[in-house]
Amino acid sequence: MTAIPTTMKALVSDADHTASVHTDVPVPKPSPDEILVRVEAWSLNPTDWKHIKVVAPPGQIIGCDFSGTVVAAAAAAGNQKSSVKVGDRVAGMVHGGKYTDRGSFAEYVKTDADLVVSLPPAVDSLTGATVGIAGYTAAQALFQRLALELPSASATSLPAVDGAKKVLVWAGSTAVGQWAIQLARAAGCYVVTTASPRNHDLVRDMGAAEVYDYADAATPQTIASKHPDLRLALDCISERGTQSLAVRSLGASIDSGKVVVLLKPEADAQALRPGVVAIEHTLIYTCLGHAFSYGKAAFGEAQVQADKAFIERFTADGLFAHLWATGQVRGNRLRREGSGLDALVPALALLEQGKVSGEKVVLSA
Ligand SMILES: NC(=O)c1ccc[n+]([C@@H]2O[C@H](COP(=O)([O-])OP(=O)(O)OC[C@H]3O[C@@H](n4cnc5c(N)ncnc54)[C@H](OP(=O)(O)O)[C@@H]3O)[C@@H](O)[C@H]2O)c1
């Protein structure tokens, strides 16, 4: 095995809200419950460019999603649920842009041993990297915040669809939406979604039972009329009025409903059906088990530990790996944008400029 170096290359935030490849970044030192992963592939998320442009102070390693090979196992392995060991292929996510020693756009990344997905042999590194932010967010939103029943940990094929378990995935062609459709379908849900017409085949193929054009002003009313019992939704855009569209799509006859949103709750959406439809914000970084602040919001120890324990069902307990190995999920549709750290900034510009539709931008390291 090659020795682990003391320094590495990484994409790091600079003083002027840009980021560049630094060549002398210390290789992260894992704490006793963490592993060190040699990164082999990245998938890109809107949060990466938002951290560069807005959130990250200088000196933070950028990047959340990764896949790669474990090069140092957790020192306190006996305290972990997971049994990942040196040489295993894993994927996961960290809060890139928040720390000087914890970001995925680097040659090595450290992360909690219980928070990685063991990749089945049939899942290649690029596809594996898509599970990060998008997959974990979909799992947290659907099964923790909306409290849908989890997919089976033992079934080896997709279950029958249960028409009584309905969920709306607003904006199903997004990276989070694609994962949400697949996971909800694996849980036996009847999935209603929206997307541009060019992506209708994609979302149907991922398991949606019905798809509508989100740009058609009649869509919320159409969905609400067809599904008077629809009470749960995940809004995968959550800005520019989509929260209200999701609220208006829920059935008129429900006495309680919930829309989970990925960005700040919008006041006009909250005002639409007060006391009936709750809007709940979810933020995936809470699953990482570290108390932190984000803008004006603070997330304390109790919440981050509860959210970590929940996502461990998908990571350390193996639900993501099982669903992948049995072909019940297959990750995002890929868009390959080259390789190496130098290719990351131009690839992130595609996301920022809205030039990505129904695809996940991935790069090999
Ligand atoms: N809170 C959290 O923890 C969390 C986690 C993950 C993501 N996010 C946020 O969630 C958002 C989505 O992230 P992502 O990575 O899933 O997105 P993405 O894949 O980059 O989104 C691209 C897709 O957005 C769709 N889209 C654009 N405008 C739309 C609209 N007005 N209505 C419906 N769909 C629209 C497009 O669909 P068509 O091509 O079909 O038109 C396109 O396929 C971002 O703002 C991200 O920062 C938050």
From TrEMBL:
SUPFAM superfamilies: GroES-like, NAD(P)-binding Rossmann-fold domains
One term of GO molecular function: oxidoreductase activity, acting on NAD(P)H
Domain Enoyl reductase (ER): 13-299
Transmembrane regions: none
Gene3D superfamilies hit by this protein: Medium-chain alcohol dehydrogenases, catalytic domain, NAD(P)-binding Rossmann-like Domain
SMART domains the record matches: PKS_ER (SM00829)
Protein name (Swiss-Prot/TrEMBL): GroES-like protein
Organism: Acaromyces ingoldii
